[in-house]
Amino acid sequence: MSPTKTAPYIRIDAVSRQYGQVRALHDLSIDIDKHEFIAILGPSGSGKSTLLRLIAGLDRPSSGKIFIKGEDVTNLPPHKRGIGMVFQEFLLFPHRTVRENLAFPLRMTRETPEKIVERLEWAEGILSLGGLMDRYPNQLSGGQQQRVALGRGLVANPTLLLLDEPLANLDRELRQEMEVEIRRYQKQLGIPFIYVTHNQEEALSMSDRVAVIHKGRLEALGERQAIYDHPTTPFVARFVGRSTRFDGVFDRSSGNITIKAHDYTFAHQPVDGMGADGRVDVFVKNERFELSPWTEKSTGIPCSVADVVLRGPFVEYILETANKTRIIAVQPKRKDHLSIGDRVSLSWDPAQCHVFAAEG
Ligand SMILES: Nc1ncnc2c1ncn2[C@@H]1O[C@H](COP(=O)(O)OP(=O)(O)OP(=O)(O)O)[C@@H](O)[C@H]1O
Ligand SMILES: [Mg+2]
């Protein structure tokens, strides 16, 4: 690290964690800024909780280091790291009131009674818990319980907050409401939140940057829009957003990619790392398909509409190609929407698809 450059607020530096034969995390590095909301997104077993446990100090890395505000905290116990936590597995104590639940982290760090009163008032205010302080968790709604759990993570004035799937047990509507609230708290408090989820909608709606983890490795790290619009690996293309994959072949002489199964060809720039046979994987986000009624002049993939699913402002068309492959195309709802049995031409803007050298 150069002495002139200020240290990042949080630095995760080449961290690995091995459990026997299992490589839960492998050589993972991320720098996090003081004002950032970072989502850690990955499928089940990818190493997300392991990473949070290492940051929290609940576990130690096999190699690598963790720095907070320039200080090496790799060997510090959890209570000396100044980190707040909201983990799904230990939310609230059922036999203690909201007030007692909130006071717990402050008692752990042996704060004075005056300080505890002051911090409880702060939490009550910022989380709108007025009138709920003497209730027990089972006398609260799911959203209220969640706010108390957040309060418990924040009450000791942490330098950062770690959240591990805190909304997983809430229904969709409440989850969306809490997503907005949690993001608002983060911006208001000005400390980083590191938010683990396997739910890409949650990651994309809340965070500034998204770190995609796959098999213990950092697969991609970037601003949420960039992660969605410009996936840099096939895994990210598959995992973020809903997309359809096609086997294609790139022909160097013509500069065309042909989707052989559907006899569809489009022009494309050369693809990095492609083998001599030119095989490529083409990913198209389901909402980026273009559909038009089939005519003699159509050049897209001929399909028929097998089903129409209404999803709020969008329509999901289940299409069937000539060789009986099913493709889902999502389109904005319009008055003249397509009906079952309609013949359509399916295509896409070559600039809107993602092409990678074929895997394996
Ligand atoms: N204490 C442990 N001992 C052995 N293996 C472990 C231990 N903790 C985690 N693992 C393994 O490490 C890998 C990563 O686990 P981790 O809990 O970090 O995944 P995750 O991304 O949080 O998954 P989920 O979305 O299901 O919570 C998994 O293969 C898991 O089985
Ligand atoms: Mg987990």
Outline the structure in words.
The model has no long low-confidence stretch (mean pLDDT 93). Strand 4 and strand 5 (71-72) form a beta hairpin. With 360 residues, this protein is α+β, with helices and mostly antiparallel strands. The radius of gyration is 25 Å and the shape is globular. The chain has 2 domains: 10-237, P-loop containing nucleotide triphosphate hydrolases (Rossmann fold); 244-357, OB fold (Dihydrolipoamide Acetyltransferase, E2P) (Beta Barrel), CATH 2.40.50.140. It has helices at residues 48-56, 98-108, 113-126, 142-154, 172-189, 200-206, 224-229, 234-239, and strands at 10-19, 22-32, 37-41, 63-68, 71-72, 83-87, 160-164, 193-197, 209-214, 217-223, 243-251, 256-259, 264-267, 279-285, 290-293, 301-311, 314-321, 326-332, 343-347, 353-357. Helix content is 23%, strand content 35%. The longest helix has 18 residues, at 172-189. It is built from 8 helices and 20 strands. A 6-stranded mixed beta sheet has the order 6-7-8-3-9-10, sandwiched between helices. Strands 13-12-11-14-20 form a 5-stranded antiparallel beta sheet. A 5-stranded antiparallel beta sheet has the order 15-19-16-17-18, with no helix packed on it. Helix 2 (98-108) packs parallel to helix 4 (142-154) and helix 4 (142-154) runs parallel beside helix 5. The structure holds adenosine-5'-triphosphate (ATP) and magnesium ion. Magnesium ion binds next to helix 1. Residues 48-49 line the site of magnesium ion.
